[in-house]
Specification:
The chain is of the alpha/beta class. It has helices spanning about 40-50, 125-130, 145-165, 185-195, 210-215, 245-255, 290-300, 300-320, 335-345; strands at about 1-10, 10-20, 30-40, 65-70, 70-80, 90-95, 100-105, 105-110, 115, 130-135, 175-180, 200-205, 220-225, 235-240, 260-265, 285, 330-335, 355-360. The protein contains nine helices and 18 strands. The strands form three sheets. Strands 3, 5, 6, 7, 8, 9, 10, 17 and 18 form a nine-stranded mixed β-sheet that branches. α4 links the parallel β11 (about 175-180) and β12. The chain is globular and about 65 Å long. The model is unreliable at about 270-275 (pLDDT under 50).
Length: about 375
């Protein structure tokens, strides 16, 4: 048998090619997982943009110099198993390459999940090495797999950003500016922040996305990138940058004389990444979600943290999937060429913010 994967040029994210390769025999302790569906969002483009700096390329090395495989979140089914504790047919959620299948080495097996103990992942952050067993995963529901794949990792980041800011008393600010306000991680963050008394949440976006952002109802107000003058220059604020646009970051840092904190989350504008040096005001600080996970797990314990996250997740997804006015509509793409085309669309920023790309290398049944 063989599998297909999508290779990305590490130094030119728009250059891609499909590769077919024969399956290698499994070693003792390994399982082969058929990757049934996975989500593709601007968050995955960030993985590629920061692939070297934050080791994202190392999770699923391509074996070819200069080429990488961008990680994605999705669902798979165990197709072969040489691990007695993992049965063929078992469904799992986790971190996968953009491919038709992946070989994992399950370890630290628990009823709700296991860790991939592949040697090349041993030094990488544990959050990304954990796979959830759907039969015992408290966040799993069989009829919402698409929404889970599209939003679950992003919402966890959103929830942690909100928690981090509250944990630091918003650095003395009463206004939070969110760039790329139409992105899923931004409006997840806004959803959480909107529940904080006394905090104004301002979404910054392109003119074409203003109506969409306003329709979400989670922003106190929405302002275009070219309308920063509508916000008082002396506003006591925090800037959370989801866009990675150097010119916008400079404009924010220059205009707001009471900018208390500046946090960089990702990069939806890959061509503008960088430019965080020599800025007026506070230093732009990269937010690393696993660090806040560790802090809260140490303070609260894993069970309490899990309960808090589950409550927030249920509230958020109820709003997102409201039949009367859904925030997000999954869009299915099947087959290798469709995956490659969808990647180019997301990279180029041509996706409507209400559409969520769900991909599979396998043809639709």
């Amino acid at each position: 048998m063989s599998t297909t994967d999508l290779l990305i040029r590490k130094d030119a994210l728009g250059t891609t090619r499909l590769r077919n390769s024969s399956d290698a025999p499994l070693a003792d302790g390994q399982v082969r997982v058929r990757i049934d569906t996975f989500a593709l969002t601007s968050n995955n483009i960030t993985y590629g943009a920061f692939g070297d700096a934050m080791s994202y390329w190392q999770f699923f090395p391509s074996g070819e110099e200069g080429w990488g495989r961008i990680p994605v979140w999705g669902f798979g089914s165990v197709a072969q198993s040489m691990q007695p504790g993992v049965a063929v047919g078992e469904r799992v959620y986790g971190y996968f390459p953009m491919a038709g299948q992946v070989v994992l080495q399950p370890d630290r097996l628990r009823p709700d999940g296991f860790t991939d103990a592949a040697p090349h992942r041993s030094e990488l952050h544990a959050v990304y090495n954990r796979y959830m067993r759907c039969g015992a995963d408290p966040l799993y529901t069989a009829d919402t797999e698409d929404i889970q794949a599209l939003l679950r990792p992003l919402f966890i980041t959103s929830w942690l950003i909100d928690d981090f800011l509250a944990d630091n008393d918003f650095f003395g600010a009463d206004t939070v500016l969110l760039s790329s306000a139409s992105s899923k991680t931004a409006y997840g963050t806004a959803f959480q922040l909107a529940q904080r008394p006394g905090i104004e949440v301002i979404g910054l976006t392109s003119p074409g996305n203003k109506l969409f952002c306003e329709s979400l109802g989670c922003y106190s107000r929405v302002v275009g990138y070219d309308e920063l003058e509508l916000i008082p220059a002396d506003a006591s604020c925090v800037y959370v940058d989801f866009a990675g646009n150097a010119a916008l970051r400079l404009a924010v840092h220059t205009r707001f004389v009471n900018l208390r904190f500046s946090s960089s989350i990702g990069g939806t504008h890959v061509e503008h990444l960088g430019g965080a040096k020599n800025l007026p005001g506070p230093r732009a600080t990269l937010f690393f979600a696993p660090a806040q996970i560790k802090k809260r797990t140490d303070e609260w314990g894993a069970a309490v943290m899990g309960e808090k996250l589950l409550t927030a997740w249920k509230s958020f997804t109820a709003q997102v999937t409201d039949p009367a006015a859904p925030w997000l509509v999954p869009d299915q793409h099947h087959g290798p060429e469709a995956v490659q085309a969808a990647y180019a669309e997301v990279l180029g920023g041509r996706s409507h913010p209400r559409m969520g790309h769900m991909l599979s290398f396998h043809k639709a049944l």
